Amino acid sequence: MAQSRDARSAGAITTKEWTLYKEKFLDPSGRIIDNANGKISHSEGQGYGLLLSYLADNRGDFDRIWAFTRTEMLVRNDGLAAWKWDPAAAPHVADTNNASDGDVLIAYGLALAGAAWQRPDLSASARNIAVALAAGGLETVGDLVLLKPGNSGFAASDRKDGPVVNPSYWVFEAFPVLAELVPDGPWREVDDSGKALLAASMKIGVSSLPPDWVSLKAKPRPADGFPQEFSYNAVRIPLYLVRSGNRDRALLEPFMTQMPDQKGRVRIVNIATGQTRQLLDDAGYRIIPALVSCVLDGTPLPDDMRSFTPTDYYPSTLQLLALSYARRHKPDCL
């Protein structure tokens, strides 16, 4: 069973690592603070917080994060989370649209913890979110079952270039778990569609790297109104692929060869030209193409990526997800 296999991952983050992470990013109320984004909280961060606290086997912190998420962000009438909670706004939730990656991550974290800790209340909550997302968060285009970035604003009926999707919202490791929770749900189809979408999106530009936002109105192309680049969203795609057990070299290799520069820094890339717009030097970004290189070719992770010192919320989160995977599934990387 998928949940049983994943349950063995509890404890894959060390107590020291989790303590460093929560001291910087976990408010006593249970909200994960995005310190590089106005100290807001968002459903993505709450989902990551649930997943990381599960991987650290810290049940008290997990329950705190879930309590905040449940009471402060699950305020929509459809069972999904509002995407943004702003401490400087009144009310704190000013935009009630959801973000589907946040919903997937929340459901996934709840499902893993529910199975591992024998908590049927968490499993039931995960199931409810998965059912709610399937009911309003998907759109079928041809043979593809697409995960809309949010229930409002991205469908074919919402935009001239719609539907618009974000390939990084496919949390590939989560879908087998959601499919097991809801056997008659669409999650296997969503999983398969995400890989097909990613393969098509990687053909848009000259670098074989996908844009963050993709229009599927006709042939896949960068969506209107967004920077036409491989950027902060898409850098996590290869991490999700690797953590799901994917070893498809055709999908993964461009993230090993095109994503980093010669010094291993992650490139923000202009889709049209393939030129570098910015370089990301944080270990939490650099560890992603390095992990792909280890998975595909056996290259060990550089020493400076193996120890965790929190910087900003997003790269710190990605680094812990990469390290926890390597410890449990690719110890030769370390």
Automatic annotation (TrEMBL):
**InterPro entries attached to this UniProt entry:** 6-hairpin_glycosidase_sf, 6hp_glycosidase-like_sf, Glyco_hydro_8
For this protein, the Enzyme Commission number is: 3.2.1.4
Catalysis: reaction(s): Endohydrolysis of (1->4)-beta-D-glucosidic linkages in cellulose, lichenin and cereal beta-D-glucans
Residues spanning the membrane = none
MF terms per GO, please? cellulase activity
Top enzyme category: hydrolase
Q: Please indicate if the UniProt record lists Hydrolase as a keyword.
A: yes
Keywords on this record? Answer: Carbohydrate metabolism, Cellulose degradation, Glycosidase, Hydrolase, Polysaccharide degradation
- Gene Ontology terms describing biological process: cellulose catabolic process
| Superkingdom, taxonomy of origin | Bacteria
Query: To which protein family does this belong?
Result: Belongs to the glycosyl hydrolase 8 (cellulase D) family.
List the protein's name: cellulase
